[in-house]
Design a protein that fits this description.
Elements lengths: L6 H21 L28 H5 L18 E3 L11 E8 L8 H13 L10 E3 L8 E6 L1 H8 L9 E3 L2 E5 H6 L8 H16 L26 H8 L22
Parallel strand pairs: 2-3, 2-4, 4-6
Antiparallel strand pairs: 1-2, 5-6
Helix pairs in contact: 3-6
Length: 262
């Protein structure tokens, strides 16, 4: 047989293969373009996540009972008079200091009576406008100032607002052991100052005075303001919403300084 030259055939195959390769390359996707910052330029940090508004409960946390030592939660529901010592005076509204049976104070009943006497006899207290005279169990007093266990105080003062408070019921002032031992966030670590405030505030109710609000930003809080709950009108308005406290609290931004004196 006469040999046949394969050169034309091979040349055609090479051209076809070349065309296929060129076609595949032409159809390949282009790599994504990356934008690199110019030399010396630092890209800005990512934006922080949006801050949400504080929950409503956070507005009320200042009215909660502060942490602290244990206190008598339940007493017997009866009270005994703390005998007075020293000069009693001869004029003024008579008052007796009493402690609920079952309530034990680390420094004794006299430590409670001493704070009450100090508050009522101090020139900055009600004594500048109204005289008081302490008596023992041999006299029926016009006013009784009692240290009352937490649960008894809740039953007598009410617990409509879910915070421990003291109160005045007729001629009797009930000072809650919860607050006497722990104080209030508004007073920070000034437990003695808070105790004096509690006495003066509740005795103010006995004298016929109602609740007040913060009159001006930065002013001393009126002793008849509910400082146990808050010393600023915004907080007090939020806490007492829906509860009749005998005063209309306008959330006007006024914030007062804690003050235990009338």
């Amino acid at each position: 047989m006469r040999p046949v030259s394969l050169l034309p055939y091979l040349a055609g195959v090479c051209l076809a293969a070349t065309a296929v390769v060129v076609l595949d390359v032409g159809m390949a996707p282009r790599p994504a373009t990356v934008a690199w910052p110019a030399a010396g330029v630092v890209p800005p940090p990512p934006l922080p996540p949006a801050q949400s508004a504080p929950p409503v409960d956070a507005l009320h946390s200042g009215a909660d009972l502060p942490p602290g030592p244990p206190f008598p939660e339940q007493g017997a529901g009866t009270w005994h008079v703390v005998p007075p010592s020293g000069a009693r005076g001869t004029a003024g509204t008579t008052y007796a200091v009493e402690v609920e049976d079952g309530v034990v104070l680390p420094q004794g009943d006299d430590s409670f009576a001493a704070v009450v006497d100090h508050a009522l006899r101090h020139p900055r207290g009600w004594s500048g406008r109204h005289a008081f005279r302490r008596v023992g169990d041999d006299v029926v007093p016009e006013l009784r100032i009692r240290l009352t266990s937490q649960r008894t105080a809740r039953s007598l003062c009410g617990f409509e607002l879910p915070y421990d408070v003291s109160c005045r019921v007729g001629p009797v002032v009930h000072l809650s052991t919860a607050r006497w031992f722990r104080g209030a966030h508004t007073y920070g670590g000034d437990l003695r100052g808070y105790r004096i405030y509690a006495v003066n505030h509740e005795v103010g109710h006995f004298l016929g005075l109602g609740h007040e609000v913060c009159p001006a930003d930065g002013a001393p809080a009126p002793v008849m303001m509910q400082q146990t709950l808050s010393v600023d009108n915004d907080g007090l308005a939020s806490i007492t919403t829906g509860s009749d406290q005998g005063v209309v609290v306008v959330p006007d931004g006024n914030s007062c300084e804690p003050n235990p004196w009338p």
